[in-house]
Amino acid sequence: MSFLHIHNVHKRFGDTHVLKGIDIAIEKGDFLVLVGPSGCGKSTLLNMIAGLDAISEGELLLNGERINDLHPSRRDIAMVFQSYALYPSMTVAGNIGFGLEMRKVPKAKRREAIQRAAELLQIENLLNRKPAQLSGGQRQRVAMGRALVREPQLFLFDEPLSNLDAKLRVDMRTEIKQLHQRLGTTIVYVTHDQIEAMTLATRIAVMRGGELQQLGTPQSVYDDPNNLFVAGFMGSPSMNLVTARITRQDGALVARIASANNEVTLPIVRDRAALEAWCDRDVMLGLRPEAITDPASANREDGEIHEAELEVALVEPTGADLYVVTRLGGRSINARMRPGAPLSPGQSTRFAFDVSRMVAFDPETEARIRDETDATTQVTARPAALGQNV
Ligand SMILES: Nc1ncnc2c1ncn2[C@@H]1O[C@H](COP(=O)(O)OP(=O)(O)OP(=O)(O)O)[C@@H](O)[C@H]1O
Ligand SMILES: [Mg+2]
């Protein structure tokens, strides 16, 4: 039995069908991150779990109990919103302890809980201040403290870090991760931030237009996307996607991709059985930027490297990496190379492709083309058509 089971949940606002049968199950201690484009229904789903919005159809089970009709105050769930409304006239301690006071928790116990939360969030020295005297990040921590002292069964976070500057976001991200590790709490967390999703989650759910596209570990969603949408959505810089023709060459299956002066031929080593059926047809090929490198940086131990000479179109140093853009299959392709590599636009150089990481998609349905045995992720594959939105 899962700890939180979202079972075939629908939400309609009048005629608008916002959630179209969401199925997600997580275990106690899981950190589920919901991602997806604006308007895909992430906040709606969170609000339904919290009990702030009624469920149109389906079931919500928490710890085996059906909570569809349970009043929010009785769900034992704490939610931290994007705009963490603190009571301006109360001190930090008052804000954190308010919920406990409402529930008539004795003063000594309250003080103890506030102290413990403040220590955890490193805001002990701020307990007597008013919210107006705090920075954004400190306010954020107070809002989190208010949720923490309740020791709920489940935490819900709706883009809690979106108001913070880049540096603070990274610090808070680390703190949330440590908090999760220390307390082992179960969390459902909404974010727009790719790195936040990858670093915090034990499970990622990718949503689009009110439908679940994929549910899996961060690594499986990243390496083994269910469809073109997930492939393009997860990762920054995003996965390279090019049209390729699957053919047979000397008895082996290969992918041929048009390049500026001739063609690049890459051997098919992954999902070979499924791609047999695509011989002499076009597919959409996906390869992550880090799977295209300079030959010296190529991972020859775990990967299967195939080299090709291509022209450099653009060089983008980021400090830690050097992104090199070339043209392939009529598209710009991003390769991650060794920083400091002496490359300049117009020059030809060897690119090393790790073909073991290459994934293929049906250009029409956008579904992944993969071998049965390769399906390591929980699939709800019903790839939404391009442009579709709620
Ligand atoms: N009360 C409502 N009445 C009608 N439609 C609503 C209502 N609340 C939300 N919606 C619609 O439901 C869809 C999903 O909204 P939701 O806020 O869940 O999206 P989201 O994924 O959280 O987006 P964002 O990333 O922008 O926060 C949107 O198209 C929105 O316009
Ligand atoms: Mg939202």
What would you note in describing this structure?
- One of its GO terms (molecular function) is ABC-type transporter activity.
- It comes from Kushneria phyllosphaerae.
- The chain is α+β, with helices and mostly antiparallel strands and 390 residues long.
- It folds into two domains: 4-230, Rossmann fold (3-Layer(aba) Sandwich); 231-369, Beta Barrel (OB fold (Dihydrolipoamide Acetyltransferase, E2P)), CATH 2.40.50.140.
- The chain has nine helices and 21 strands.
- The strands form four sheets. A six-stranded mixed beta sheet has the order 6-7-8-3-9-10, sandwiched between helices. A six-stranded antiparallel beta sheet has the order 13-12-11-14-20-21.
- The chain is elongated.
- Magnesium ion binds next to helix 1.
Which kinds of small molecule does this entry bind, naming each only once? Answer: adenosine-5'-triphosphate, magnesium ion
Proportion of residues in extended strands: 25-35%
Shape: elongated
Count all strands and give the number: 21
| CATH homologous superfamily annotation of the largest domain | P-loop containing nucleotide triphosphate hydrolases
Q: What is the spatial order of strands in the main beta sheet? A: 6-7-8-3-9-10
CATH class of the largest domain, please? Alpha Beta
Gyration radius, rounded: 24 Å
**Level-2 CATH architecture of the largest domain:** 3-Layer(aba) Sandwich
Please tell me the total number of domains: 2
Uncertain ranges: 374-390
Portion of residues within helices: 10-25%
For the biggest sheet, the summary is: 6 strands, mixed
Q: What is the number of helical segments per DSSP (H or I, 4+ residues)?
A: 9
Encode the helix/strand succession as letters. Answer: EEEHEEEHHHEHEHEEHHEEEHEEEEEEEE
